[in-house]
Amino acid sequence: MSNRGGKRENAGRPRGQGKFGEPTVTMRIPESQTATIKDFLEAL
Length: 44
Description:
The chain is an all-alpha fold.
């Protein structure tokens, strides 16, 4: 077996231990709307 990178068991942050304490999803938004959406989320 090679130790030259790739996926490793138990590597990385455990699930649910991030900033929000729950699973997250990735969403793609238009670049032109980034500031508007950030402002909206900070106001919550």
